[in-house]
Specification:
Blueprint lengths: L6 H21 L2 E8 L7 E7 L14 E6 L9 E7 L2 E10 L18 E3 L11 H4 E4 L4 E6 L3
Parallel strand pairs: 1-8
Antiparallel strand pairs: 1-4, 2-3, 2-5, 5-6, 5-7
Length: 152
């Protein structure tokens, strides 16, 4: 004999799934606090880009795990910049650059050498291609804090 369920009973799984998916994106978000030091000029924008392993160094902003962009012309002091990015708990790597001319690009010269200050979330050797595993950090449920130092 086939059981009959009410209209709500048939829709409940979809309703519950929809609610959980909305709650899932916010309930488990963690805050990553990024401190950027060695900012020499209060001009342009500071971009902090967070990547996961699958999208490491992707140029498409739609593939970033998270990002923050701060207008430096509004800064009143010369201390470090502190910004926050909301992320799901997991493994990430960060790249920051000082967009001096506010063109929203990381500028390089004809030999692909950076012309704007930049930093990674770990030690970086100029003549090697950056690898995700060298810059990886973990964001837990309680969040995380990292510091980067700009270099030119």
């Amino acid at each position: 004999m086939k059981q009959r369920t009410s209209s709500l009973g048939r829709r409940f799984p979809r309703l519950a799934t929809g609610c959980l998916s909305v709650l899932g994106t916010t309930a488990f978000a963690a805050s990553l606090t990024v401190t950027v030091d060695n900012i020499e000029e209060n001009t342009g924008r500071m971009h902090v880009v967070i990547y996961d392993d699958a999208n490491w160094m992707a140029a498409d902003p739609a593939k970033f795990a998270g990002a923050s962009s701060v207008d430096l012309s509004e800064r009143k002091d010369d201390g470090p910049l502190v910004t926050k990015v909301e992320l799901e708990p997991g493994e990430y790597a960060a790249f920051a650059y000082h967009d001096l001319n506010s063109n929203n690009k990381f500028d390089r010269n004809f030999m692909r050498i950076p012309t704007e200050p930049y930093a990674f979330s770990g030690p970086f050797k100029k003549l090697q291609k950056p690898q995700f595993k060298d810059f990886m950090f973990v964001v837990g449920r309680d969040g995380a804090t990292i510091s980067v130092v700009l270099r030119k």
